């Protein structure tokens, strides 16, 4: 059995470079990893961005080229990436494609301290009171958002040197992508029963553990859960544990 390709959807303000240690760890376990920066990150047209545009990009640029090549995919989503990622996965499960006589498809979903959004919900609407955290800096003229004190927000348990490297890679994120509604997600679908997982981060200053736990608990579906004593970037602070968990689920969900 060939291993599924891992499609990694980055979080807000982040690019694939941030996940280099995790990508390298997965490649060392013989996995192909595909990832691209989302259109809403570092955009020159931030007012034109949305969850729908990010979702279409994930589907057309990341998922379909692999799936239409007859390959299986494990979809790994971080943070905001859970909103457009789960939307992009709709109707692309391996089970649904097999039923239609097609090869390839998504064998499983892994959320890494990511938003589990329902149709019509946005990242912003998922926050308490529908208000951004104080560390989100909005520029209403440009339509961009940046982050105050990213070391504390994203990298609280990452070494200073690695945190500085990661901070240097951060880019503005289009506000409209954070506040626009998500389309129908794939995660509630029965085809993913026994094939959805969540990596919970217990020391997370971005999406607090209590919020992650509530999203999973009240989702109405079952999850394979692992808990890490980690901040919001376990791909940097707990690289081996994340890589091993993702690899384990990729094999289990593809079998």
Automatic annotation (TrEMBL):
Q: Which residues form the signal peptide?
A: none
Domain AB hydrolase-1 residue range list: 6-244
UniProt keywords (A-Z) are:
Hydrolase
Q: A Pfam family matched by this chain, by name?
A: Abhydrolase_6
The superkingdom listed in its UniProt entry is Eukaryota
* InterPro entries in the cross-refs: AB_hydrolase_1, AB_hydrolase_fold, Sec-Metab_Biosynth_Hydrolase
Q: Does the keyword Hydrolase apply?
A: yes
Alphabetical list of Gene3D superfamilies matching this protein: alpha/beta hydrolase (3.40.50.1820)
Q: Which GO terms describe its molecular function?
A: hydrolase activity
What is the name attached to this protein's record? Answer: Alpha/beta hydrolase fold-1
Q: What is the lineage of its organism?
A: Eukaryota, Fungi, Dikarya, Ascomycota, Pezizomycotina
């Amino acid at each position: 059995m060939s291993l599924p390709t891992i499609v990694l959807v980055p979080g807000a303000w982040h690019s694939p470079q941030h996940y280099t240690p995790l990508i390298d760890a997965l490649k060392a376990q013989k996995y192909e990893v595909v990832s691209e920066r989302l259109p809403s990150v570092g955009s020159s047209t931030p007012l034109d961005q949305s969850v729908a545009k990010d979702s279409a990009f994930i589907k057309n640029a990341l998922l379909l080229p692999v799936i239409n090549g007859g390959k299986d995919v494990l979809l790994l989503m971080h943070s905001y990436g859970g909103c457009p990622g789960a939307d992009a996965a709709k109707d692309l499960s391996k089970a649904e494609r097999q039923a239609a006589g097609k090869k390839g498809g998504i064998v499983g979903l892994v959320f890494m301290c990511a938003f589990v959004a329902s149709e019509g919900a946005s990242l912003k609407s998922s926050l308490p009171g529908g208000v951004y955290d104080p560390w989100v800096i909005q520029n209403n003229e440009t339509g961009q958002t940046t982050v105050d004190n990213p070391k504390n927000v994203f990298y609280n348990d990452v070494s200073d040197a690695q945190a500085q490297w990661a901070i240097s890679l951060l880019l503005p994120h289009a506000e409209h992508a954070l506040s626009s509604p998500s389309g129908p997600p794939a995660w509630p679908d029965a085809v993913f029963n026994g094939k959805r997982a969540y990596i919970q981060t217990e020391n997370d200053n971005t999406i607090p553990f209590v919020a992650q736990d509530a999203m999973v608990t009240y989702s109405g579906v079952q999850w394979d859960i692992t808990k890490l004593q980690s901040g919001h970037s376990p791909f940097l602070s707990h690289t081996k544990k994340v890589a091993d968990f993702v690899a384990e689920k990729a094999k289990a969900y593809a079998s």
